[in-house]
Amino acid sequence: PQEGYVEDSLEKGMNYEQKKWEEEHLSAAVMKFGAKDAKQARKEKDYDYVMDEEIEFVQAVTMPGSNKSAETESQLSASDLKKMSIEETRKSLPIYKFKDDIIAAVRDHQVLIIEGETGSGKTTQIPQYLHEAGFTNDKMKIGCTQPRRVAAMSVSARVAEEMGYKLGNEVGYSIRFEDCTSERTILKYMTDGMLLREFLGEPDLASYSVMIIDEAHERTLHTDVLFGLVKDIARFRPDLKLLISSATLDAQKFSEFFDDAPIFRIPGRRFPVDIYYTKAPEADYLDAAVVSVLQIHVTQPKGDILVFLTGQEEIETANEMLLERTKKLGSKIKELMVCPIYSNLPSDLQSRIFDPTPPGARKVVLATNIAETSLTIDGIVYVLDPGFCKQKSYNARTGMESLIVTPISKASANQRAGRAGRVSAGKCFRLFTAWAYKNELEDNTVPEIQRTNLGNVVLLLKSLGINDLIHFDFMDPPPHETLVLALEQLYALGALNHKGELTKLGRRMAEFPVDPMLSKMILASEKYKCSDEILSITAMLSVNNAVFYRPKDKVVHADTARTNFFRPGGDHLTLLNVYTQWAETNYSTQWCYENYIQHRSMTRARDIRDQLEGMMERVEIEITTNAGDTVAIRKAVTAGFFYHTAKLSKGGQYKTVKHQQTVMVHPNSSLFEELPRWLVYHELVLTTKEYMRQVIEIESSWLLEVAPHYYKSKELDDSSHKKMPKQTGKAKADMHKHS
Ligand code: CDP
Ligand code: MG
Fold first, then answer.
1. Which residue has better confidence, 666 or 37?
2. Fewest CB within a 10 Å sphere: which of 260, 365, 369, 535?
3. What is the pLDDT of residues 576-596, one digit of tens each?
4. Which ligand is nearest to the CA of 215?
5. Where are the beta strands (DSSP E) in 412-539?
6. Hey, whose CA ends up nearest to atom 8 of ligand 1?
């Protein structure tokens, strides 16, 4: 057999099941990845010198194009697309042919399900069509929800450009902590979470003529809750048009939920995509991804690459690795333009992914799930899919939530592959084996509502006067115990009374677009006269652990700078210290630079803080500062986060107080060196161990003060434990201090 035949991929020791499966399913026609192209490249460019490592792929299947005509259609190259005027581009979208039919269908039906291939123009075009058809007359708005903030921002920017408006005027977006709309806004893109909040101020959505729940297939928690709310509203607002738009095959399910609403299918234009798998599982998918990108770059014909990674950290690492390696290779390879995209990326850098690729160069987009369906980047011909995403997982028994890197579903994998076939025939390289695809991936992703904490949403629904949550019209109901736990937590926080009704405190908590524990902390700051400090802490906690900058070549300096900010008492006080010092320099960029602080995160924290401060007026809390009293500040934090209390146990480990779960202080914490007996943590992250991130030292007696109905003094009595944990000198000293 020739080189690359599947026989020589069946290495010794391969799982028998897998071997058998591969023998049955991978035909002899399977070709080693790029064998032909690679040979060509070797001749021309000293390939072996360029590629000192190589990932071997085998081709298994070709995902067919969606219709015959697509394959015969002239293949548009990325540069052709860029040369087209905006008007021509709009007309080239698959949806364009159906413009009149869509308008007519919206006129004829109150609720319409729209299904169409990603990139066909649903999100950017439908609101414009409906605007042209008069749905924005009489100052009525068309709303369109997006599960992700990056999508809301980038799509609205695109639509504003297409319509020739300045973003924020006629076309705008609204995401948490950022409202880019005005009195004049008629097309409003927003995150699904923001629409939920709009219900608080406008329960019948009276200012909207059309509401589009977009990317419905993503089934985010907020989108799922919106389904129930908008379905209800549609009944008493017959003039409101409702569009549920989705990329994939869930249309039937949506139709059934919305009382058999008609489905409008937009036939897509998709070219065939060849799917390749690795021969063997890859131990380090990040490294494999970087190698594969270079491999594609040197062996494959022109076309941009889209790589799916799980988050900011991975994307930044991959970015660095690629820059490093391409720099080393210098002029041996053509230019590679690396563009990262993830939700915390500042918007000016986000738009770079849409910049045209310079002639002769190749663009590689390093993206999170955002590029799976929410964003379409023209010119992608190669998709590289390691097969993972970051997912929330929730333990309904303990109430613990963690973000975990999880294998994607088959549906996701296919959606990702499809991104390679938009402008021409494409290739998708999966960094996992064909066997793993078949046997290890779930068919579909579990909707978020079934794997997340519901505290936030329950508080919001209660604020909307929806008391009976058990009978709320969910498309897929959340697990009963998750709902009960959310009610319990809100009760413990004082947001609900024993009958499950919203309290005055709960109503005030719902004013803040943050988690109930954070809003409780903010409200508690009134009592402890430290609202100024607590707002800064809340803002700093909200920027996602992106405060400290740690470049690989300056690790020592960066760590020293970080530890210099440490304050006794814990990480919240350290974050406060960073914010205060920065504010004292009049928000200096230079200061951030000198202190290894990420300036972008700080300006975002400042924005968030300003917004929160504005909201304090609505709940009538004065801004008072009490910077010297760290006990008061820590008590306010504890008043919100008493659920997250842990007590030192053996060997530097902690046990959570309510569930006796073993957890550790994160090595980055200022308390890592001197573990306190009692602490409150902000969040748990699961890496190799279950780590508590952002912790403060507390005294157990505070728990009785801030949550008397949740903690009994017996639970917190240190001496009642039969077995005393092994004490370090420091822990002993702490105990004396506390008793
Ligand atoms: O919503 P759907 O996936 O059906 O498509 P869309 O997001 O409306 O995208 C339609 C076209 O707009 C695609 O060709 C995108 O590349 C383009 N687009 C863009 O150029 N810039 C953006 N910020 C968003 C979309
Ligand atoms: Mg879309």
1. 666
2. 260
3. 999 999 999 999 999 999 999
4. 2
5. 426-430
6. 121
Given ligand 1 and candidates 350, 357, 376, 416, which is best to mutate, with the most ligand atoms within 8 Å of its CB?
A: 376
Q: Please write the tens of the pLDDT for every residue from 76-99.
A: 444 455 567 888 889 989 999 999
- Residue 162 φ/ψ, nearest 5 degrees: -60, -35
Q: Which of 589, 587, 597, 536 is nearest to 562 (CA)?
A: 597
Q: How far is CA 719 from the centre of its chain?
A: 44
The residue contributing the CA closest to ligand 1 atom 10 is 121
Convert the pLDDT of each residue in 536-576 to its tens digit: 999 999 987 789 988 878 899 999 999 999 999 999 999 99
CA of 239 to the centre of ligand 1 (A): 29
Q: How is 317-356 classified by DSSP, letter by letter?
A: HHHHHHHHHHHHHGGGS--EEEEEE-TTS-HHHHGGGGSP
496 contacts 503 by C-beta, under 8 angstroms:
yes
Q: Catalogue the E-assigned strands of 77-232.
A: 111-116, 141-146, 171-175, 178-180, 187-191, 208-213
The string of DSSP letters for 690-729 reads EEEEEEEE--HHHHHHH-TTT--HHHH-GGG-SSPPPPPH
Pairing, β 400-407 against β 388-395 = antiparallel
Instruction: Round to whole Å and give the CA distance between 285 and 156.
Output: 34
pTM to 2 decimal places: 0.84
Site to probe by mutation for ligand 1, drawn from 158, 167, 381 as the one with most ligand atoms within 8 Å of Cβ, is: 158
**Residue spans of alpha helices (H) in 585-668:** 589-594, 599-618, 630-641
Q: Is the pLDDT of residue 190 over 80?
A: yes
Q: Provide the b/e sequence for 103-120 (b: ≥16 CB within 10 Å).
A: bebbeeebbbbbbbbbbb
3-state secondary structure at position 529: coil
- Lowest-confidence region among 57-71, 140-154, 441-455, 602-616: 57-71
Amino acid at 340: P
Q: Comparing 73 with 438, which gets the higher pLDDT?
A: 438
Does the pLDDT value for residue 48 go beyond 80? no
**Enclosing H/E stretch for 424:** none
The pLDDT of residue 392: 83
Question: Distance from the CA of 159 to the center of ligand 1, in angstroms?
Answer: 9
Ligand 1: residues within 6 Å at CB? 93, 116, 118-125, 154-155, 157-158, 354, 376, 378
Alpha-helical segments (H) within 494-527? 504-509, 516-527
By the 10 Å C-beta count (0-12 exposed, 13-18 middle, 19+ buried), 182 is classed as exposed
pLDDT in tens, 656-667: 988 888 999 999
Q: How far apart are CA 130 and CA 136, in angstroms?
A: 8
DSSP code string of 532-569: HHHHHHHHHHTTTT-SB---GGGHHHHHHHHHHT--TT
Q: Is the ipTM of this complex over 0.95?
A: yes
How confident is the model over 468-524, as pLDDT tens digits?
898 999 999 999 999 999 999 999 999 999 999 999 999 999 999 999 999 999 999
- Residue 499 CB contacts under 8 Å (≥ 6 apart), including other chains: none
Other CB atoms within 10 Å distance of the CB of residue 140: 16
- The mean pLDDT of 288-301, rounded to a whole number, is 92
pLDDT at 629 over 70: yes
Query: Measured between alpha carbons, how far is residue 51 from residues 28, 292, 386, 404, 720 in Å?
Result: 27, 10, 20, 32, 64
Query: Cα separation of 621 and 522, whole Å?
Result: 9
Q: Which atom of ligand 1 is nearest to the CA of 120?
A: 4
Q: How many CB atoms lie within 10 A of CB 63?
A: 18
Give me the pLDDT at residue 353, please. Answer: 87
Instruction: Tokens for 514, please give them.
Output: 């943050």
Q: Give the nearest ligand 1 atom to 118 CA.
A: 3
Q: What is the whole-number distance in angstroms between the Cα of residue 145 and the centre of ligand 2? A: 10
Residue written as tokens 């917004």? 611
